[in-house]
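re: ur question from earlier - yeah i can do the single chain one, its not a big deal. heres the input i used so u can compare w yours
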Amino acid sequence: MAYVWDTQASRWQERDGRFQLIATRGATLAAAPPLARQPDLVRLLGGALPQCGCAAVYPEDFAFCPECGRALGARAQRRPMAAPLPLHVPAGLPVSSEALGALAHKGRPDLSLPAPPNAHSVLRAGHYGFAEERLLALAPARNVLQYWDPLAAVWQILSPRGGAAPLGFSAARHAWLGGGSAAGDAGLIPTDQGLLRLWIDPFDDAYHTETLCAARLAAAPGMLQRHLACLLATDSGLALWCDGAAEPLGRQLPASGWSQPYAYDGRLFWLHAAGQLVWQPQARAQWLPWPAGWQPRLEFGGPAQSRDGRLWLHGHEAGGYSFCELGSAAPERHPVDGARLGFAQFLFRRSHAVVGDPWESEQVVDPQAADSVLLPLLRAFHSDSGQPQGVVLRLHHPDARAEDLLHPAAPLRASVEWFGRSCAVLEQLPRLESPLELRPLLYAGGFWLFHPRWHQLRGWRLEESA
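and the output i got, formated as tokens:
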């Protein structure tokens, strides 16, 4: 005989003491989830898993096993959110307020998970309106969305439902904006067909999309003061779309090749090899070509910040390297004696930190360290610390220019390190290809590194409960 159990968020069918999920939030599932998927789904609903072995799962409202009376395991709980970054930190750069200091006392990775089947993916971790954090991997070139089931230790391919739009995006660098608190809201993504809100349904291993702007995007979207904006490639040229209205910008502006936007000081900045586009609400977008003869080095990391709060971009001209002011029609420039890799206030001249203005001299602590180059991966922001700190990639090559090491002709010897008041080597990488493809990720109480050529994500535990 079968019984039906209703909870606030789901409906279950019990037959011979075994429970099967059949509906969530009033919506009947297209098919019964496989037994191997059900533990993950119970955790998403906020439930606990039995420790006694009487059954694989119970509905999420159960606190005790109905067979033996033993208490179930700990219920799923949302991890506390990291404090929001203050306004004086540019948004869009790899900066986090998570407590990363534990990395200073770490050695080799103590966490791992398999790389997604489609390796060239954009990864994003979030709660997506559920009780526990989950990891998604979007492969734009393959139009594939992948979901990591941590309990079954397997990647699930989510299938499109309800006429979901294609997820491919090829015009510029991908950037994935966070979503709201509604269950399944996985955020905003750029595609070649338009700007989409992505909704996931792990209970049916499916996803669907909601079109916010049905036009070909030229760059990833940005958020500023609750205003959503993106660049469109239209038949009449580039246009800026904001909150449902498009502003034509003309045919003379490039339709591809833009950076992801950076939000700072009430403005959005899109950067390009030919110039910068600056926009603020209730004002026309401003196209500012780079000074004659000056070429940006976008791969060096991103905008840097001076003591007075202005943003600067590293570049090169006939006389050598220099920093050019962003957001100004008559920008100042400051020459420097060599390439400086990094962003915001996390910059390095070879392996020495640059503290203060981006063009100031580096702080030489160990002269022998100059035979390597540091490429910042993630800055740890703490308001009470004047010392730059975060995770860096050390590229070991005494003779090469820093710029050449970003696109090496052969694999490099490298190491992942924590840089701060105390330093630690987290991982040695004897043969690293394509250093710019190494990406940091914060997920499930750990710091992770992902590279499309690796078979596994490598992680370091940041908290005991992770």
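The mean pLDDT is 91. not sure if urs matches, ping me
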